[in-house]
UniProtKB/TrEMBL annotation:
Ranges of residues in domain DUF2399: 263-413
Record organism: Gandjariella thermophila
Stored Pfam families: DUF2399, DUF3323
Protein name: TIGR02679 family protein
Conserved hypothetical protein CHP02679 N terminus domain span: 37-241
InterPro entries, per database record: CHP02679 (IPR013495), CHP02679_N (IPR024466), DUF2399 (IPR024465)
Length: 415
């Protein structure tokens, strides 16, 4: 229904700059569906604002800087004057345009967001391993922060659903996969919104713990069959049993017989993974390549299975260790007795079924008593697998490198 008003008279009464605050207050009440009763108050009102209210209501406001205006009084003036016979609410609409009720706007927005999420909801409906991830994504507000509006989110969430439909992959380079599924080879680069959303789903599919950093992302992608830096990421091994089912397995078998170390690439471990016969066997993990070199020199083909983390474990190291754990191997880790070694141990113990290998408080204190090591420096941390080890290292303040205990480690590897 069209509202009746005299726009020129209404503008003279209520449309001036000095009454803009009053119009704005009324409009906000209308947006919240609040009644236009009672008064509105303006603190620190200017003389011009006070005179404008006086002209509107025909009476002088109370003394002081605070200005109080009765909304029913304004409504009566507008009706009686003929400027807007339908009253104050209609006058504000006439001056400022239609009012969108906030509850209605919020409901419409929520319906739009539900529609935007529909492709992802459909893509995860029959995949229970993604149910918790979807609920977190829907409730976290991450998509709203990345896209801003439901309209902007629609193409992004369509791409998320398209990626989910193709996971896990079968050892495809990440860029090629992105180009094939989305048309953009860089769509899954670290700084892109699609990668930010999908990597959580990839982690859920692989059953991996939360983490951060380039190596963690590389591991997550690899776990769902997507390769990034597939040839530059390697893991050094010695004595791993091979099999004839894959080229990688045949190579492992030949190099084990020759007593030679082998560096496996992430590509091999994803696209041509060997079948590892290690059920109920111990696989040792060292921190430094020198352990592998000495084991090859002194034990050769008699060396028990050995994997080198080479510092913080990269994606290839973690991928191999997960394959070994899945095959039933018993994993044990030894590293330098320094804070860096404890950090490596914490990473391995947090995500894998790893035990200590001569790498606990008792072993450390025995080495200190033997006079080994040099000054220990750097910020201390505690060991997840042995709460007493960190305090013992702080007390003794001795760093003991893995090279100093090579003989003991090789005795274990020979048996």
């Amino acid at each position: 229904m069209e509202l009746s008003h005299d726009h020129a008279r209404l503008a003279r009464l209520l449309g001036g700059e000095d009454l803009a605050w009053l119009v704005d207050r009324v409009r906000r009440r209308l947006e919240r569906e609040e009644p236009l009763d009672g008064s509105v108050t303006l603190t620190d009102a200017t003389p011009e604002q006070r005179h404008a209210v006086q002209r509107l209501l025909g009476r002088r406001p109370r003394a002081g800087r605070t200005l109080q205006v009765s909304l029913p009084a304004v409504d009566e003036v507008l009706r009686r004057s003929g400027a807007c016979p339908d009253g104050l609410a209609a006058a504000v609409v006439a001056l400022t345009g239609p009012v969108a009720v906030r509850s209605s706007v919020a409901a419409a927005q929520e319906r739009a967001w539900q529609a935007a999420f529909a492709p992802v909801r459909t893509a995860t409906a029959a995949r229970p391993e993604l149910a918790a991830w979807y609920e977190r994504l829907r409730g976290s507000g991450l998509v709203r922060r990345l896209a801003g509006t439901p309209e902007a989110a629609v193409p992004l969430l369509v791409e998320v659903a398209a990626v989910l439909d193709q996971l896990p992959a079968s050892g495809e380079p990440l860029g090629r996969f992105a180009a094939r599924v989305t048309g953009d080879a860089h769509a899954l680069d670290d700084d892109r919104p699609l990668a930010t959303l999908v990597i959580g789903a990839a982690r859920a599919l692989a059953g991996l713990p939360a983490g951060t950093g380039a190596e963690w992302r590389r591991e997550v992608w690899a776990a769902v069959g997507l390769l990034r830096d597939e040839l530059s990421t390697t893991v050094l091994t010695l004595g791993l049993p091979g099999d004839g089912s894959t080229a990688t397995g045949r190579a492992l078998g030949a190099l084990r017989e020759a007593g030679q170390p082998v560096a496996l690439t992430l590509r091999q471990l994803v696209r041509d993974a060997p079948r590892l016969d290690v059920a109920d066997r111990t696989v040792s993990i060292c921190e430094n390549p020198v352990v592998v070199a000495d084991a090859a020199d002194r034990l050769g083909s008699a060396c028990a299975p050995l994997v080198c983390s080479n510092g913080q474990p990269g994606a290839a190291v973690t991928r191999l260790l997960r394959l070994l754990a899945a095959a039933g191997a018993r994993l044990r880790f030894h590293g330098d007795f320094d804070w860096g070694g404890l950090r490596i141990g914490n990473v391995l113990h947090r995500g894998l079924p790893v035990t200590a290998w001569r790498y606990d408080t008792r072993a450390y204190q025995g080495l200190v008593a033997a006079g080994l090591g040099r000054e220990l420096t750097g910020p201390p941390i505690d060991a997840r697998w042995d709460p007493e080890l960190g305090p013992a290292m702080r007390a003794a303040a001795r760093r003991i490198d893995e090279e100093l205990v090579l003989d003991d480690l090789l005795v274990d590897l020979a048996t």
